[in-house]
Amino acid sequence: MTTVAVKPATMAQALTRAMRDAMAADPSVHVMGEDVGTLGGVFRITDGLAEEFGADRCTDTPLAEAGILGTAVGMAMYGLRPVVEMQFDAFAYPAFEQLVSHVAKMRNRTRGKLPLPLTIRIPYGGGIGGVEHHSDASEAYYMATPGLHVVTPATVADAYGLLRAAIASDDPVVLLEPKRLYWSKDSWNPEEPSAVEPIGRAVVRRSGRSATLITYGPSLPVCMEAAEAARAEGWDLEVVDLRSLVPFDDETVSASVRRTGRAVVVHESGGFGGPGGEIAARVTERCFHHLEAPVLRVAGFDLPYPPPMLERHHLPGVDRILDAVGRLQWEAES
Amino acid sequence: MTVMEQRGAYRPTPPPAWQPRTDPAPLLPDAEPYRVLGTDAAAKADPELLRRLYTELVKGRRYNAQATALTKQGRLAVYPSSTGQEACEVAAALVLAEQDWLFPSYRDTLAVVARGVDPVEALTLLRGDWHTGYDPREHRVAPLSTPLATQLPHAVGLAHAARLKGDDVVALAMVGDGGTSEGDFHEALNFAAVWQAPVVFLVQNNGFAISVPLAKQTAAPSLAHKAVGYGMPGRLVDGNDAAAVHEVLADAVRRARAGGGPTLVEAITYRVEAHTNADDATRYRVDAEVETWKRHDPIALLEQELTARGVLDEAAVESARQDAETLAASLRARMNQDPALDPMDLFAHVYAEPTPQLLEQREQLRAELAAGAAPEGAQ
């Protein structure tokens, strides 16, 4: 095999490639959603799929999210593996009843007789200057629904690996795509795509000894930047990328916090009733005797997502993360 | 030249040509519900089919009565009866070929039983020992759907998938009059028509959504008229006339099978019993109305027709009655046995592989059961 130069690829390209590879490998994989066919999706994530696989495999549906997901349920019941695109986080809400009442429950209610191999791709989160209803961090809704797997990539390689894993899964998977990272680049070789890792594993992105930043999706690059900046303050921060919110990798997270003794959870979603509360509780339950300080959260404010000209005040940034790290009771050590 | 100066010479640019995309006339339902029994059309009906419908209707009525009795005895948690609607329930099941799929709502356990599912398995949801008791793929019967109309897009998706695979499969989806107000009804019909999916939608208009009468549900000329807006034919049928329901559904199934796309069928019937055993129908309707409908009873209508044509003798009536009693006795005996319950089942099917979190919780329950007085598996 000739060596292929590893060029920078975007997360968007990796997602497209994942669907293309899955469709080529398995004729039962069908992509469907609004504008996914001729246009290639409003974010162009399905670009070229209709051309390559035909309109029956990559289908422009009527504009109705409950109908899209509801028909996908029926298609999965018949043995297909639908990959549904919801155009934006906040436009996925009409499909919520189908998701909660059927997608999440079908395997359980039929004692495993009717599993639903279904992938639901949802671009989520802010930071792209979107107007109202285009920037919701909606992960807490999905996390609170038993029967769903909920995963979110933060790197180009993970975007490929997690989407392949989602499509291969015999359970429904909600893949939350951080839309502000769609155009983030990384050296990633599309000819030798990353391994398809099992869903449910977190990864340590940066090793450190002082404290652990626990994060995922769109907040990972912010945390990595914060960790760099923290060196000037004398803090050596570890950064854990959850990748999978459900199932939750208690093992990796707890091992990190036991090492560092301090933790801050960082996400865009609101703090009240948000993922951070659950994560902080789990860490505290498992690592209490290793903790030097309460587990803190840096989250979006508990308000409807702000208009684009104000969103920078809402999203967790480096300074807010460093402030939180500063409140981890360092005095006790000195 | 100013706009005012141009005025004399101005000719508006004609808009792009417009014409209706579908001629609505052939899609419109008849003004009156279609009837067979007691009309000239009855002569053409197959006597063998009518006798089969009769037997199934008698069994269905007895099944409804037995399930209601089991509810009163505490053997079922709840039972939404289809008494008075047996013609729709039975015809929906009989009209399908083996490979076809049925998508029932919670009131349609009789259709599920008539399709061949074990009554005890069909009643699992209402007994409460699990949610779906039967294997949907084995019987090609979707789980009973409790959230209204949400099963309709499933039927469309399944039928669409089958057609993509080149399989000869029709899906028949059942919904009530109240369900037609749900968004999923609209979205399912729209998708079905756009995709020309082989689906038949059967609306049993039984007059009430729990307590709310149809007049408060819709201002449409009829529910069948809604089909026209989606570009599919709407058919209106007397839902208590088993021969008519069977014929209309059979036409729709044939049409779907031949690639002609979906049909919406509105069957006019009546919910003779309350919504469920937990409902008090006297709060929203008068007995006189119920009595009027009881005189338009599906079994009596069919019996009169068959007797008049001399194809139903006393022996046949007795045989149907015996079949019904056998069904009821078996159901009674089996439902009076306590179901086997295993609390560990709670964790077994949430995912293909339980998450680490569920494994921890399963061990917690196991420990609780081991520590408690009740042995594991007991009620």
Automatic annotation (TrEMBL), chain A:
- Cofactor entry: thiamine diphosphate
Query: Which SUPFAM superfamilies has this protein been placed in?
Result: Thiamin diphosphate-binding fold (THDP-binding), TK C-terminal domain-like
Q: Which organism is it from?
A: Streptomyces haneummycinicus
Query: Which InterPro entries is this protein grouped with?
Result: THDP-binding, Transketo_C/PFOR_II, Transketolase-like_Pyr-bd, Transketolase_C
**GO biological process terms on file:** branched-chain amino acid catabolic process; response to nutrient
EC code(s) of this entry: 1.2.4.4
Q: What is this protein called?
A: 3-methyl-2-oxobutanoate dehydrogenase (2-methylpropanoyl-transferring)
What stretches pass through the bilayer?
none
Keyword list, A-Z: Oxidoreductase
UniProtKB/TrEMBL annotation, chain B:
Cofactor names from the entry are: thiamine diphosphate
Q: Does the keyword Chaperone apply?
A: no
The residues covered by the Dehydrogenase E1 component domain are: 62-325
| A Pfam family | E1_dh
Q: Which domain of life is it from?
A: Bacteria
Does the UniProt entry include the keyword Acyltransferase? no
Q: Where do the record's region annotations for Disordered lie?
A: 1-30
CDD domains noted in UniProt: TPP_E1_PDC_ADC_BCADC
Q: Gene3D superfamilies attached here?
A: 3.40.50.970
Keywords tagged on the record: Oxidoreductase, Pyruvate, Thiamine pyrophosphate
> Residue span of the signal peptide, if any?
none
PANTHER family this protein is in? 2-OXOISOVALERATE DEHYDROGENASE SUBUNIT ALPHA, MITOCHONDRIAL
Q: What is this protein called?
A: Pyruvate dehydrogenase (Acetyl-transferring) E1 component subunit alpha
The protein's gene is named pdhA
